[in-house]
Write a structure and sequence with these properties.
alpha/beta, Rossmann fold, two-stranded antiparallel sheet, 8 helices, binds zinc ion
């Protein structure tokens, strides 16, 4: 099955090249330290989504750029979309993907603030349309062995995420502005609190970005792509879908 970027495809191309699998990224526009681009979450998730779609011969949809960024909304340039508005929008898009006849939709999420929202709407759409929906938080659901091996100081805009951006868009990273931050307290349970978030993210950064490297980022991303591809193939096999 041919890989296709839906927004670049003509009507004839999309009609004559059907695929049972659609792939879409969801990200954010938010502050990532002083050294990474604000579009980091969307750009990396979309890059992963594109590689996965290529491997699977799937249809790639354009990413959903804006996400829910409560904890970093005080930083200039961060766009914090209301949770329920985001839920409705992502749900509407997934319903439209289902209506186009795909059997499996893979959602590559690039931002922690979106995770619970994306899962809730994925479940709603899957059970009301019959389309299977796989949701992957690319940095924490797959390739965790590689992550542990490669990085000592991971975190938001930290060693791991900075390495990933160095791999895909080195030109957008300002390593001279890279820094580190380890907060005195990180809750071990899900604790939603603006006071705690501003303690954790005074510089919109966690971990140590100065330890990042392009090479580590590329090795990690390769492991992530193959882990997702393998998981989707396995899902398809078990659903009796040929891909
Ligand atoms: Zn991020």
């Amino acid at each position: 099955m041919p890989f296709l970027r839906v927004w670049e495809a003509t009507g004839r191309a999309i009609d004559s090249n059907p695929s049972p699998v659609a792939v879409i990224a969801v990200g954010s526009v938010e502050r990532h330290g002083d050294h990474l681009p604000l579009g980091t979450d969307t750009m990396v998730a979309h890059w992963v989504a594109e590689r996965v779609a290529e491997e699977l011969g799937a249809h790639l949809y354009p990413p959903i750029w804006f996400g829910s960024s409560k904890g970093l909304s005080s930083f200039r340039g961060t766009i914090d979309v209301d949770d329920l508005a985001l839920a409705s929008y992502v749900e509407a898009v997934l319903r439209e993907i289902a209506r186009s006849g795909y059997r499996i939709c893979v959602v590559v999420n690039g931002h922690g603030g979106n995770s619970s929202i994306v899962r809730v709407v994925a479940r709603r759409v899957a059970f009301s349309t019959g389309m299977a929906i796989a949701v992957v938080d690319w940095w924490r659901d797959v390739a965790q062995e590689a992550r542990k091996k490669l990085f000592e100081a991971p975190g938001h805009a930290g060693e791991d995420e900075t390495s990933a951006v160095l791999c895909i868009r080195e030109d957008l990273v300002d390593m001279e502005a890279a820094s580190s931050h380890s907060p005195r307290y990180i809750p071990r349970i899900a604790a939603y609190s603006p006071a705690i978030d501003s303690e954790i993210y005074p510089r919109a950064l966690l971990g140590d970005a100065t330890k990042a490297s392009k090479e580590k980022g590329c090795r990690w991303l390769e492991a992530i792509v193959s882990d997702i591809v393998e998981s989707v193939r396995e899902l398809a096999r078990n659903l009796g879908i040929e891909i």
